[in-house]
Write a structure and sequence with these properties.
Order of helices and strands: HEEHEEEHHHEEEHEHEHHHHHHHHHHH
Radius of gyration: 30 Å
Largest sheet: 5 strands, mixed
Number of helices: 18
Distance between the termini: 26 Å
Number of strands: 10
Shape: elongated
Structural class: alpha/beta
Bound molecules: zinc ion
Strand content: 15-25%
Length: 418
């Protein structure tokens, strides 16, 4: 068997194409496989306009497609693609070769391989690994993610929305997710109520329906609440656990900040560099951190009290049902207010009071957590999706790049596989 015949078999070219030459260029370490069409091709090709019979009109210049490596050597397919002309309408067109991927520079197999790498590492790293520019790889990913246009949202009923920061403190994306099928549905710039207008538009473009949405999970921001009220009238608002605890963490941070600022002997020393202690659950603290915590609690600091409240809040989420939870939330709110009176001077507990007020005002939506059951996990998972997205799109934090990467990582779209 000649090398050309062997490559013909390996590439699965069939009867319509043949490998006419294989050569290895030592200087560039590249294997070139030159392919040409056979006469048989013209029995098969039809005019894309009207299905008419076609004859060979001419050939393009020599084109190349990057293919999978051969024994660690770069491999490129070269071909002067035939252009066909329709016997009926005279339309001239380029014949699409079976190996070509969605981008004109890569074969299908190479694209599938690159996509596999993109799942595992940042784009710049993929580019380095396969020896292509990241611009070319991004362009390929953009074309692959165009599969998004065909995604079906007709079963979407439980939606979660969260904001993802594009650049620290500046731009935001609002990311909408299907909490049942655990996938990202849509992302758009901004975090105002109009993001919901754009979301329901996208939803309906993909066969979904705004009034089929029965549950909308989110943080307690007014903008998103307004977005839901004005666009999805059947949706029950759910303020998810993840965001409630996050706000509790922030409130504890603020108590700590206020207490440090107010000072007093030993306070600063006790509390400096403890931010992370207050964000962790006790079981995750190192021995050293536990010791520090014990010291702080000993000093009867407001921060320790606030931390205790945050822990109890988290424990309320272990309640078996909404009725029990409601009772415990109410007790908790009273407790915060009572303790706040004690720390009134200097307003140390202002942030905790605000948190209690917010929980009271949003209690119905917070208690909806107990009805929404299994749908919460993905909401919390979105955060790690966001950091993975940013990591993989490093260097290209434009919104288009981030959204494309989001859809690629978590859109559950169909991509070619090896
Ligand atoms: Zn035609």
């Amino acid at each position: 068997m000649t090398p050309e015949k062997l490559f013909h078999e390996l590439l699965g070219l069939g009867l319509n194409w043949e490998v006419v030459e294989s050569r290895f260029e030592r200087a560039s370490g590249t294997v070139f496989l030159e392919i040409r069409e056979t006469a048989k091709l013209w029995e098969l090709v039809r005019c894309p306009e009207d299905g008419g019979l076609v004859f060979c009109y001419d050939h393009t210049e020599m084109l190349t497609w990057r293919h999978l490596n051969i024994f660690q050597h770069r491999c490129e397919i070269t071909c002067r693609l035939p252009r066909g002309k329709c016997r009926q309408c005279g339309h001239v067109f380029r014949v699409r070769p079976p190996w070509e991927g969605l981008s004109t520079h890569f074969t299908k197999e190479f694209e599938a391989f690159a996509l596999l790498l993109m799942r595992e590492m940042p784009m710049s790293k993929v580019a380095e690994t396969v020896g292509e520019t990241d611009t070319r790889l991004w362009r390929m990913l953009f074309r692959q993610v165009a599969a998004y246009a065909e995604a079906d949202f007709s079963n979407v009923c439980c939606v979660g929305v969260d904001e993802m920061s594009v650049r620290k403190g500046h731009e935001y994306l609002s990311v909408f997710a299907d909490l049942v099928r655990r996938r990202v549905l849509f992302a758009t710039e901004g975090k105002d109520w109009e993001t919901w207008v754009r979301f329901v538009e996208a939803l309906e473009k993909h066969n979904g329906h705004r009034h089929a949405i029965t549950q909308a999970s989110m943080d307690m921001s007014r903008a998103y609440q307004k977005g839901v009220r004005e666009n999805c009238r059947n949706a029950q608002l759910v303020f998810d656990k993840f965001h409630v605890i996050k706000q509790a963490n922030e409130a504890v941070d603020q108590v700590r900040g206020a207490e440090v600022r107010r000072g007093g002997k030993g306070v600063w020393e006790a509390l400096q560099k403890t931010t992370w202690i207050w964000r962790k659950n006790p079981e995750n603290l190192t021995e050293h951190e536990q010791e520090r915590l014990a010291k702080i609690e000993h000093k009867n600091l407001a921060t320790a009290k606030a931390y205790q409240m945050r822990m109890v809040l988290q424990d309320i989420y272990r309640s078996p049902d909404a009725t029990t939870a409601r009772r415990r939330f109410k007790v908790w709110i009273r407790w915060v207010r009572w303790v706040a009176r004690y720390y009134q001077q200097g307003g140390l507990f202002r942030s905790m009071l605000k948190l209690a007020q917010m929980i009271e005002d949003h209690l119905a939506g917070i208690l909806a957590h107990w009805q929404s059951g299994l749908t919460n996990a993905f909401m919390e998972g979105l955060n790690s999706v966001f950091s993975a997205t940013k990591r993989k799109a490093r260097g290209y934090r434009s919104t288009t790049h981030l959204i494309t990467m989001l859809y690629f990582i978590s859109g559950k779209l169909r991509f070619p596989q090896i």
